[in-house]
Known about the structure:
single chain, disordered N terminus, FAD/NAD(P)-binding domain, 7-stranded mixed beta sheet
Amino acid sequence: MAEKASENAEYDYDLFVIGGGSGGVRCARFSAQYGAKVGIAEERYWGGTCVNVGCVPKKLFTYAAHFSEDVQMAKGYGWYMDKPGFDWPTLRENKDTEINRLNGIYDGLLKGAGCDVFFERAEVVDPHTVKVGDRQFIVKNILIATGGWPFVPNFPGNEHVITSNEVFHNESFPKTIMIIGGGYIAVEFAGIMHGLGAKVTQVYRGPLFLRGFDKDVREHLAEEMEKKGINLRFNEDVVSIERHGSGLHVTLTSGEVVKTQMVMYSTGRRPLSGGMGLEEAGVELAKNGAIMVDNKFQTSVPSIYALGDVIDRVALTPVALAEGMVLAKTLFTDERPEMNYEYIPTAVFSAPNIGTVGYAEEQAKQKFGKLRVYTSRFTPMKHSLSGIDEKTFMKLIVDDSSDYVVGAHMVGPDAGEIMQGIGIALKAGATKADFDATIGIHPTAAEELVTMRTERA
Length: 457
């Protein structure tokens, strides 16, 4: 391991990072490459939520879930095959192999950059002291990048539920599952478990899931999920859960008792900030445990910084990566970049997918005033022969005074892949005239984004 002298001899490290997820690893690596002496500690797994119990395994499971529908669609194209069979242990074990490979890559990247790596718990002793196991280090700057953790409310029988942390490691695959929650994780797993063969009920206490997303997108997805056979129960919540043999009896607020083999809670994640000495060191926390930071990710203690899901701003892996780069440059170069949270493209790997960038219509109306809105709902070409009744939905939101496209939304196959390119356009300040002047790629679903000419009434 490369040895680097701290810029100040009184410190063991110029930067010590607690948390080996995407943001912490990115900041540690580049800080070391900029010449800082860096230590980083992780007590659970390298890569954080994304690599281990988030984006990566979830996307692999999403791919797996599509095969049942792909086989069904194939008949319309002249392909006949026996009824497909699904083996849960094969998927689970192949997923584990890939994640173990990624864990090793993260470890190798850190060591290759010259970081001192500690695979154990670290805590803050004071503004310049970190405790790692039975050792203590004097450090100039501390970065907290410990991410978040699933939240399960307190109610009778909550010990019987699993979360997104455990679902990837189930010993067996359930025939029936109830998923509680209305965020993107709940929506994604409803589609995944349905596609893998489970009978799925999704329960959400509000009138419509995916609060914060564009209303048209939310309504369209709900319609498509119900057409696939997913049972959506809005304006409902769980009162209690009881175990009966190998199954569970779930009592809902309506009084109905639903029998299911498994209950998965996806009711949000909380910043993982407790029990590591932050409050004792003077770091200000929000009520939900989020670490309060300024626009340079500095906490109320000048030597302590935080970024990623633990600050509860935009809980997305690419955002944490960008935040890590901003902080590394701020601390160890002459650059002073600013983190910009506007026009962040994102995807929900639901069934069908959502891709979105910019403002929802409701938000855009508040910010820009008069809008022009363009929508399109159509059967994608793939489904003209597939026998699958699924519609794609697209929407563009335009600031009327400037002609800037300020929101773009899609529900349909490959929506995330398509929206990445649209994200570049919106970030660059593309106008509706620019979209209209762009030649479409034919025949694709994506060309609809540059051929929408009729404003919604």
